[in-house]
What does this fold into?
Amino acid sequence: SKEEVLRLRKAHLNPAIFHHFKKPVMIVDGKMQYLFDETGRRYLDAFAGIVTVSVGHCHPEVNKAVIEQTQRLQHTTTIYLNDQVAEYAKELTDKLPGDLKVAYFVNSGSEANDMAMMMARLYTGAHDIVTLRNAYHGLSEATMGLLGQHTWKYPVPQGFGVHHALNPNPYRGVFGNDGPAYARDMEDLIKAATPGRVAGFIHETIQGVGGAVPLADGYLPAAYKLIRDAGGVCIADEVQTGFGRTGSAYWGFQNQGVIPDIVTMAKGIGNGLPLGAVVTTPEIAAVLAQRLHFNTFGGNPVSMAAGRAVLRVIDQEQLQGNCAQAGGYLLDRLRQLQERHDIIGDVRGKGLMVGVELVKDRQTKEPAVQETATVFERCKDLGLLLGKGGLHGNAFRIKPPMCWTKDDVNFAVAVLDQALSEL
Ligand code: PMP
It folds into this structure.
């Protein structure tokens, strides 16, 4: 029973593991964009297991691939030849532009970013890394140093040589939507806080945990030039934004017309199976050639089979196009809602990667934290499971399975409308 699960969890799970809702929800089944609790009640999933169940819960084709591979071979590590890892490396890197053709497989986003940072430092011989305020790149010791959000930080030493540049947030940032202006400030930061040479710059292309915050127009081309002039490499964290979620591009960085030197991925890449990847150029990958580096579960055949099935399903079901369509419709509907609810300060995002920020006053933009929590909880009671986050805790995050339909959008907007009206 739910009570027994709560009791066991309290007694035996580390208390760091938190509940998404004040009144916890128990989920026992999932089917595509829907989740079901222990009573059989259906919810529309707007958060996809934190942007991870990309093609849908228990998608039949992913399930089939995983089950078939599980029955053949589950694990040996990469010390033997196996078809799955080699073929997936080819299929995955075929999706990337330029010289981004060499993959290393890990199990999570934190691991991928740890490795990307290590590669950048080995390749450049420099140490300093630039990241952004409001960033989230993981919670390993190294990636916690990249965090730009107090909520997730522990008071222990971390982040040596990491520098947080201004966040090019079009809604709240000091230079509005002027991307190059933020890059000019980053130039000052590099001069002020580093020896003038850096190892690299790591960034999300839409800040995910930070509340689906896009980067100001023209930011990445200017920032990339600056970083490369300072001897560094550019690392795009596509853990949330990759695989077509933004609708207008397969990779988030393509929305600003840049090509990174290293791309990290996790979450949606495996539709829920533990899988992450670091993809880079042969030249940068070569820094590990003379070393032993090893990851026990990285490249395991079951996760590889899931990853391959996800790539196929995204293409076959044209899920990138669906993200553009359903996401565009969602943004339109949310902007209509904004006209009727003064509390909605900002509606933003791309494709099915959308943020809604609630404010007490549109002029001062004072975060409406309590109201956000109330609406969040009420939407759940009405059958919609949202995400929540942002630096100020006042943003809804709508990042559903990529198969959301127009009807799902209509339902979600109607629920939000009702919950906001009840405030
Ligand atoms: N990068 C981004 C952009 C993320 O959103 C996350 C997880 N929220 C991570 C990295 C870390 O991934 P993981 O939790 O798999 O370590």
